[in-house]
Amino acid sequence: MEKAEAGEGGDADSYQKLRQIYRDIQTGAKAFLTAEYGMCVKFIAVFGFAMIFFVANVDGRWDFKIGALTAFSFVVGGVTSMISGYIGMMIAVFTNARCTMTATLSPDAVAWKESFNVAFRGGAVMGFALSGLGILVLYFLICMYVTVFDVASEAIKLFECVAGFGLGGSAIAMFGRVGGGIYTKAADVGADLAGKVVAGIPEDDPRNPATIADNVGDNVGDVAGMGSDLFGSFAEATCAALVIAAQSHDLVSAGWDTLIFPLYISAVGILVCAAVSFVATDLKPVRDEAEIEQVLTTQLALTTIGMTVVMYPICATFLPSTFYLGARSTFAASCANATGNSKCVTNGPFHAFCCISAGLWGGLIIGFVTEYFTSHSYSPVREVARSTETGAATNIIYGLALGYKSTIVPAGILSGIVFASFSLMDMYGVSLAALGMLGTLSTCLAIDVYGPICDNAGGIAEMAELPETVREKTDALDAAGNTTAAIGKGFAIGSAALVSLALTAAFVTRTSVLDHGVNMLNPVVFAFLLIGSMLPYWFSAMTMKSVGVAAMEMVKEVKRQFDTIPGLLEGSPGHAPPDHARCIKISTDASLREMVPPAILVMTSPIATGIFFGVEAVIGLLAGGLVSGVQLAISASNTGGAWDNAKKYVEKGGLFIDMPKRDNVTGEIIRDELGSPVLISVRQRKGSDCHKAAVVGDTVGDPLKDTSGPALNILMKLMAIISLVFADYFMSINNGQGFLNVPRQAF
Amino acid sequence: MEKAEAGEGGDADSYQKLRQIYRDIQTGAKAFLTAEYGMCVKFIAVFGFAMIFFVANVDGRWDFKIGALTAFSFVVGGVTSMISGYIGMMIAVFTNARCTMTATLSPDAVAWKESFNVAFRGGAVMGFALSGLGILVLYFLICMYVTVFDVASEAIKLFECVAGFGLGGSAIAMFGRVGGGIYTKAADVGADLAGKVVAGIPEDDPRNPATIADNVGDNVGDVAGMGSDLFGSFAEATCAALVIAAQSHDLVSAGWDTLIFPLYISAVGILVCAAVSFVATDLKPVRDEAEIEQVLTTQLALTTIGMTVVMYPICATFLPSTFYLGARSTFAASCANATGNSKCVTNGPFHAFCCISAGLWGGLIIGFVTEYFTSHSYSPVREVARSTETGAATNIIYGLALGYKSTIVPAGILSGIVFASFSLMDMYGVSLAALGMLGTLSTCLAIDVYGPICDNAGGIAEMAELPETVREKTDALDAAGNTTAAIGKGFAIGSAALVSLALTAAFVTRTSVLDHGVNMLNPVVFAFLLIGSMLPYWFSAMTMKSVGVAAMEMVKEVKRQFDTIPGLLEGSPGHAPPDHARCIKISTDASLREMVPPAILVMTSPIATGIFFGVEAVIGLLAGGLVSGVQLAISASNTGGAWDNAKKYVEKGGLFIDMPKRDNVTGEIIRDELGSPVLISVRQRKGSDCHKAAVVGDTVGDPLKDTSGPALNILMKLMAIISLVFADYFMSINNGQGFLNVPRQAF
């Protein structure tokens, strides 16, 4: 390994520090995951045990085989998710420090290429490990269950048991996302506020005791959290598609490959992603700053194109040309006198191809719209940056308005996908669209994880007091990562919405409500539609508040350390080191404590609704949560992303403000083009009033974009899959009308 | 009139100024209303003319009588709404100055009583004028149409034509709320920012050229806007109830009084409100600051109790005991083999009483929950105030979380009301619940309008440079007004939700879709559910952005005036006065310009959906807009209200922050209870860092609580009533499947 090209401080000393920081982060990350997974294991044990009984209760009879196998799938799903999160996080932690090291290389072109490649490959390892592991475990699980059930006659039961896998993955994702989200933002907001408000020192300053917790948080929230979230989406989408397919007499009788066709979509996706990943790292490597963002977005576009190309042959190979998507009768009889029935599929491969492509391209467009609204290369973020001229308040107003506005296109695209895929292939089409959107999962994850790796590399460079040029490189890598992380979030939300709808669809199919439709104007349905649409708000209130509470605890601890550790704040030579461990403990404790109430809310709402009010109420609840959650999640993520990048835009000197000459300005002064003497255009930088206003927006955006926004994905999916797994139990209570025996609306 | 008790400045001079300010506000308000109503008249003319043709097209045949009468109702509704708004605003403007004058009286007890009574009576005049006018005009309109239609056989057509009245009222409310909301907040935010950021002078300083615009805005937005909003709710709720009643063969044949029973609810409501209003002004007058809030909330509670007491006899007098809520058959035949059919009413008066009471008490509870979340007497706002300790960012985070959390109870109550009233009396029950909630309309309006009157009285006192004690009184009156205004907003949102659902119900009944239900899992319904739930976000984005843009224009104009008018900023004696008129013009122009796009969005969405995708899509759109809009409106209003009062809490010295001794603190220092020497508890006041942070929240909250939040009410209602009026036209296109001929889902 070469040495840094510009040696401002002692190099050996810096690398020593770097190693120490790496170890601190690793210890902190392991400590958090151990604590979190400890709780998860207990939860899995208790909930899994309860499931054996609840799920076994089918139509008043007890079938413990079903209960036990569902619970087993649940445990396997949960454990797989934990392993995936752990792998991803350890890789990210390794890669953080490596990326900082490679950024010190010379000449510049080598440093750019190598540090980009390290970060991107780190992300890719995570992406491939996670999707590969997920698909393998799921496949083995299915193979195991095939020995227990008779596929021809018991396909529905088989895949219902498998659905526990999705629930397990999603439950862990809940804890990962919410716990990780609270951890990372408590540390981030706490460190920022403590540094700026209390001590007046910059972000990532080594004197700040909360910085290590902040670095751990990036790995815990953005890497492990995002990983388990998308793993959950993948597991659930596949389970939903399999459960729906199993309802179709024609698909079951067409043979094994046709039945597990949904798995092939994901499997092919991994191969395509792998093939495309060499473009970024080898065929067309990054040579300078300007190319980073382009390379990342190209990856995504190429993967989408590649998937589209290979999907038609796959569909044509595995799907029959005509089939009926229902259990009761054969194709010919069912479709003879039912025109416009979306369950009658007359051109299977082509219809499936259309659904999958709709998901693929819809995801890409949602991603790029997200980029448009959150990258400072485009006008929306620049407008937000400009609004800092009149202070923090207008910055917040513009940011919120931007987030609201950014829901328009995604909501339109999602409804277009739903409409098209549903019209083509009923609920099966929706689940295929969800799988299509997740077809680029490995690439998406690689790009997503790339961001926090670079972010942390920058933090490490700052703490290790490496030369300014290193920090500049990691900052540039990180800026591109921020934008692509926004794309990833768009994907995550879009796919969560489709997955959640597919799961709702599977629930509807299971509970046979669809036979007479779900009347939205049934009082109980509408009432729960209203309640469901409130849940995302309640959930967000909890998670945001948790971040606030934990961040304030962190600020107090930092204050305490500055007050009690002599020489720390002044940075006098030989002062005692800050006590990182206590800050890490505060974040860990807070996140473990605060993640419980939101998790309980999400898990008990559908169960309580189903038990007391029946399955129609559950469908109302799910639909309400879905339509309201999507909007809230998109707007929260994009508002936060926009504020973050507006701040970065100001920091890199993009913002100029015209001021009257009499203003007492400091900093670089640039006359306007006409040389007019009345106004001067002042470049705003760190420390200017505009920057301070931008920082307020950034801090507000942190919990929105990294805690409550992404966690809403899980809310939607988890509520739906819990309902699906408990569907038979709900049906066993007063024929699905709940203990309150709510009457179905007469038509 | 007595003179002020403490003469710091020249009294005669102050009163001279006061008169001048009053005239300025009056001129500005008239100018704005003239400009706004000019646009409204054009809109009414064009849209009304178009309606003649669109509404006349029933089942492919042309019935111009229907078209013309609907259009006529539309025009009458619009004009009535404009007259109501005008009356309310002129009264408010008169009362502003009177309230300032009475606050100068001595002794204090007289000043408290008189100034409270002036403000409250001003509000009451507006409340009674508006509800009285509305009900009278509607009654005469119905009487007129009775001469044209045969009630026994054409009741449905009759009330469909009358429904135009609701549309007219609501369309003007749209312009009033959005235009007024943008006006008032552009002026308010602009004046605040210009004062604080540009010049460093306090709010309402007479040197600030934007203050008169700000005062005009309070009257324009909070009085005229709120008035036309609630007038719209009243008109629409009544129309919805009438249209639904007209579908029932039994109700129509039971006689005229039974048919127009919904009007009696509102009529009785006015009498009850009038009787109760004497409690506040005469029986138990306000004697000091502490009593104000209590007197106002007592009013509301007493009105609710009074209404509940008188409602049962009214129901028993006018409603038959058993009836069927459908057109096709008589009660006996329909209900014989339909158990659990909510259309079969077996105890009419009691069921109606329950529905109305549910609305009445639900409204009251929603109001009080709103108060809990927005008054600084309770912990939520105090917690938000405390969060300013760590700066503006945590203040924003806590405020947003508070708003999200505040949706829980209202959403629960609304869904409870919907469930109960729907189960008891089908859609008719929902419309009765809406009318029940609006039964206390006159009192609500009185309380609502009371707030801005006091707010303005304070502004006038400041500008007229009256003694400090006067300002203290008006501030206290205003603080109570803020809280009760929040209650009013809660009411407005709750009633809007119920009204919107009732209108949707009327639409469903009209389009006969209910015969086979609205399947939520029909692709087109679900797709539009998703789009509908996005519309409130789009709409909010537009309105918030508009406020931002207009406020920045205002700031620039104020800057320009300070730069160009010599001596203005320094306040040197004999300087030229600020140019208020230009600031008023900026607010007026901006609001007229910016209110058009949101209005177009709201009006064209349901029409375009119905024309292209059919009636099922429209129902999805309406339901989505409703469930998502309610949450967004509640959270926006309450977040804004909480920030406002958190700021007030800091200003009145309620917030103490513990600081380490080494902090360099100024201001009052209070030792903690134990006399511990380590920490000092510092009272935060105007100008402290906490106050600055609180001001940021307040400014962000302004457009949320006074522009986008309340305007969402109109979005919900207006979309629904437009759909209702155009229902026949939609049905004429491919039998309600739209030009795209979207197939209905086969069951």
Walk me through the structure.
The structure is a homodimer of 747-residue chains. Chain A has 747 residues and is mostly helical. Chain A has 22 helices and 7 strands. Chain A has helices spanning 11-56, 64-102, 108-146, 151-199, 211-246, 249-253, 256-259, 261-283, 291-318, 331-336, 348-374, 379-386, 392-405, 408-437, 441-463, 468-511, 523-564, 580-594, 596-613, 615-651, 689-725, 727-732; strands spanning 57-58, 61-62, 323-324, 344-345, 656-660, 669-671, 679-683. In chain A, the strands form 3 sheets. Chain A has a 3-stranded antiparallel β-sheet with strand order 5-7-6, with no helix packed on it. A two-stranded antiparallel ribbon of chain A has the order 1-2. Chain A has a two-stranded antiparallel sheet with strand order 3-4. In chain A, a hairpin with a 2-residue loop joins β1 (57-58) and β2 (61-62). In chain A, α5 (211-246) packs antiparallel against α8, α8 (261-283) packs antiparallel against α9 and α17 (523-564) packs parallel to α20 (615-651). The longest helix of chain A is centred in the N-terminal third of the chain and has 49 residues, at 151-199. The radius of gyration of chain A is 26 Å and the shape is globular. The termini of chain A are far apart. The model of chain A is unreliable at 1-10 (pLDDT under 50). Chains A and B meet through α4, α13, α14, α16 and α17 of A and α4, α13, α14, α16 and α17 of B.
